[in-house]
Specification:
Elements: E1 3-6, H1 8-16, E2 29-31, H2 34-39, H3 45-52, H4 66-73, H5 82-91, E3 100-103, H6 107-115, E4 119-121, H7 123-133, H8 139-151, H9 158-168
Parallel strand pairs: 1-2, 1-3, 3-4
Length: about 170
């Protein structure tokens, strides 16, 4: 079964615009480790995350892999996002690349997770996936969500924004 670990940066992006429910478009279990949740203090993301968590989201931390994740990162301090990488280490499967996935905007987290065998995406990828998978989310709505995320701090270059919007269409 696929486990989808969500990092603090993606929570911020989707939570600021009230679109955390788009994470449900994934086939698998959403995992938001407790330290990641604790790191999300900005409103309205914190309130939106509290409401989203009412859906029985897994918050477990793979404690036995934290030290290994920290040692792989060396001097890079990712804060609570290290628990996301610990989850990747605990659940990766060399025979099934889809066994674990990561949703994050952080380049270090994305590169490390991908190198460890996880699928990776960003909040924009979540919107694109939801538009493709969800018959109720129309491409025009998805384009508006991408633009709102972009306006709330996860800035894209014009080229990347148009690519994300184009993939939705």
């Amino acid at each position: 079964m696929t486990r989808i670990y969500v990092g603090p940066t993606a929570l911020y992006s989707l939570g600021q615009v009230g679109e955390l429910s788009l994470l449900d478009s994934f086939d698998g279990d959403i995992v938001i480790p407790e330290p990641v949740i604790d790191e999300v203090q900005v409103e309205p993301t914190a309130t939106n995350l509290a409401e989203y968590r009412e859906n029985d989201i897994d918050t477990a931390v793979d404690e036995d892999r934290i030290d290994q994740a920290e040692s792989l990162l060396g001097d890079a301090d990712l804060g609570a996002a290290v628990t996301v990488l610990a989850g990747v280490l605990a659940h990766r499967d060399s025979d099934d690349r889809a066994a674990v996935a990561v949703v994050s905007e952080d380049r270090t987290v994305r590169r490390m997770a991908q190198g460890l065998g996880a699928e990776v995406t960003s909040s924009f990828g979540v919107v694109v996936r939801a538009a493709i998978e969800d018959k109720y989310l129309k491409p025009t709505q998805a384009k508006r969500i991408v633009r709102r995320i972009d306006q709330h701090g996860m800035h894209l270059t014009g080229e990347l924004r148009e690519r994300a919007v184009g993939e939705v269409a």
